[in-house]
Amino acid sequence: MNIEEIREFCLGMPGAEEDVKWGADLTFCVGKKMFAVTGMEMSAESGITVKTTPEKFAELTERPGIRPAHYVARYHWVTVEDLSVMTSEELKDLIQNSYKLVFDKLPKKEREKIV
Predict the structure, then answer these.
(1) pLDDT value for 84
(2) CATH class of the domain whose range is 3-105
(3) If 0-12 CB within 10 Å is exposed, 13-18 middle and 19+ buried, where does residue 104 land?
(4) Is the separation of the CB atoms in 27 and 34 below 8 Å?
(5) Can you list the positions of beta strands (E) in 1-115?
(6) Confidence class of residue 82 from pLDDT cuts 50, 70 and 90?
(7) What distance in Å separates the CA atoms of residue 50 and residue 36, rounded to the nearest whole number?
(8) CA end-to-end span of the chain, whole Å?
(9) pLDDT at residue 23 tops 50
(10) Which residues contact 44 (CB under 8 A, 6 or more apart)?
(11) What would the pLDDT profile of 30-72 be if each residue is shown by its tens digit?
């Protein structure tokens, strides 16, 4: 997947918005909470960072090209450094699961506004 495909996929989810943070990071949020982060000039080597479950975190970080995310690994975020280590479907599944994990933690009123 390239940056435009990832951007289109992320923004296709209910209530998803994009923002640029920290100068050059493109973030995708739901209810003002991030569910995916990538570089503005994303290439196959620049990667994407997403939230996972503790079980998936352990599984993913054992794979080459995927590492615990800087600063937020303790919250089970991973960075897929090399997008070629996953199929597009695997990556979409990771992004979708990250969205769901973040969405499910939103206050009930915020979730009701989105759906």
Answers:
(1) 85
(2) alpha beta
(3) exposed
(4) yes
(5) 16-21, 25-30, 33-39, 48-51, 66-68, 77-80
(6) confident
(7) 5
(8) 27
(9) yes
(10) 82, 83, 84
(11) 999 999 999 766 544 468 999 999 999 999 999 999 999 988 9
